[in-house]
Amino acid sequence: MEKVLMKGNEALAEAAIRAGCKCFFGYPITPQTELSEYLAKQMPKRGGVFLQAESEVAAINMVLGGAATGTRVMTSSSSPGISLKSEGISYIAGSDVPCRIVNVERGGPGLGSIQPSQQDYWQATKGLGHGDFRLIILAPNSVQEVVNLTSRAFDLGEKYRMPVMLLSDGLLGQMMEPVEFPEAVSEPADQSAWAATGTKMAREHHIINSLYIEANDLEEQVVKRYEKYAKIEESESDAELYLCDDAEIVITAFGATSRIVKSAVNKARAEGIKVGMFRPITLWPFPKKQLLDACKNAKNVLSVEMNMGQMVEDVKLALDCKLPVSFFGRTGGIIPTPNEVLAEIKKLNGGAQ
Amino acid sequence: MAVVFERPKSLCDVRLHYCAGCTHGIIHRLVAEVIDEMGIEGTTVGVCPVGCSVFAYNYFNCDMIEAPHGRAPAVATGVKRARPDLNVFTYQGDGDLAAIGTAETVHAATRGENIAIIFVNNGTYGMTGGQMAPTTLPGQVTTTSPYGRNPKTAGYPVHVCEMLSTLDGTALAVRTAVDTVPHIREQRR
């Protein structure tokens, strides 16, 4: 299959169509707009629906309606827009409806900036709306991986009947890389056991709902959902380990930042420093076992992020005080350089040089 | 003995939770009778609001979706766009439709979404115990307008049908009352 040069946002949109996404509901926001524009052009020609909603709030509720029929549905936005969608995401999670949400992160808080950022790690993995619930969060680090994770996002959502978020950022969204689209795409799973598609007078009516007025009923539903989450933690966590086998320093990084960290690791290795990189591909479930494996010879762990230190908390939780964990980050839309990361590695390797 | 009055097939055989004197039961029945007459129960999906009729999903026999407060027209849009073969209706009160969900209502109408919105206006937030609604009349006493709605501080009621009638996408906007038998018969038409 030949490679094409594509922008991350457009590659994501193309991959979604190939993965059987039938409806897209969204609202314009930088830096994800190319994704919407691509789908606005392509969906009508390829048997899909593109609808620009009046608001982020309306868009996520259109996703709820479309997904409730068992159709592959997607929305995308960027940080402030995801905040607006969080009400709907909570309802979608509480109604056990699968869908796919893309966040092309930008700087925050508030209107923040339109430059790349990873400031929504907490929002994505811990605080996306009210109530006890989880989303599966996939964090690609290249345009190719954006494509590869797209059909996986739909498959996981349908397998577990829950929303899945693809956490991209302004860097991945805007950069161009050669990309190959897989020939085989996943088939949508049969959703007829629960979806609202009309009874055809042949079955009991289906109710898509998150309201349980009796406390006991609600507790039962939430506990059942957490049993599902436990299974997901067991079987779906995913990570990349880079040169970790003999690493005395392990750097943890996700998404675009991991590309910068990889360059820094290579530079440090060239100078004989035993350093490796651990990159979670699923941010939830956080790949705890893989991290412990990556750190088996480590003396120090450093988390590098484009924020003020968010994932570092999960790294510390997973390591459970077994190793010292430090943090280096740039924020507000500033991208750290490999040399900055290299300097941090050298500090851990016996002081600055 | 001949049966002269039956429950519409599109309503479930369950006891409704509504207060005595509430007209939701009548309006549920009217909606269900129309679904029966059109023979579309098997292809209908209803969307319920947050408010007194939040449990409508337990009463209508067709597939039902519970929407967040005010978002029913957006949810219905999603259903209809994903599955144009389905008949989609929302059932919403005045707080849901004309306050928190005004944007969703206006934009679903202006896009000409092929859905039916059943708007039940009682001029108050009933479920939370009688607060001022966007349709509360000037001077009307509610728990949050205890001295009567004062237009100088609380504004005027929203005229939903008139507002939606100005939009090119609206196919039909009608308003009727369900307070008397003749009015109920009129509404059913």
Properties at a glance:
heterodimer; A: 353 residues; alpha/beta; Rossmann fold; 2 domains; five-stranded mixed sheet; 15 strands; 19% strand; B: 189 residues; two-stranded antiparallel ribbon; 7 helices
Describe this structure in words.
The complex is a heterodimer of chains A (353) and B (189). With 353 residues, chain A is of the alpha/beta class. Chain A has 12 helices and 15 strands. Chain A has 2 domains: 4-235, Rossmann fold, CATH 3.40.50.970; 241-348, Rossmann fold. Chain A has helices at 8-18, 33-42, 56-68, 79-94, 121-125, 143-160, 170-174, 215-235, 257-270, 288-294, 311-319, 338-348; strands at residues 4-7, 23-26, 49-52, 73-77, 99-105, 136-138, 163-169, 176-179, 207-208, 239-242, 249-252, 275-280, 282-284, 300-305, 325-329. In chain A, the strands form 3 sheets. In chain A, strands 3-2-4-5-7-6-13 form a 7-stranded mixed beta sheet, with helices on both faces. In chain A, helix 3 (56-68) runs parallel beside helix 4 (79-94) and helix 9 crosses helix 12 (338-348). The radius of gyration of chain A is 21 Å and the shape is globular. The model of chain A has no long low-confidence stretch (mean pLDDT 96). Chain B is built from 7 helices and 6 strands. In chain B, the strands form 2 sheets. A 4-stranded parallel beta sheet of chain B has the order 2-1-3-4, sandwiched between helices. In chain B, strands 5-6 form a two-stranded antiparallel ribbon. Chain B starts with 23 loop residues before the first helix and ends with a helix. Chain A binds chain B through residues 22-23, 25, 49, 51, 53-55, 57-59, 61-69, 71, 73, 87-88, 91, 95, 196-202, 205-211, and chain B through 12, 41-45, 47, 54-55, 57-58, 60-68, 71, 74-83, 85-86, 103-104, 106-107. Strand 9 of chain A pairs parallel with strand 2 of chain B, so a sheet runs across the interface.
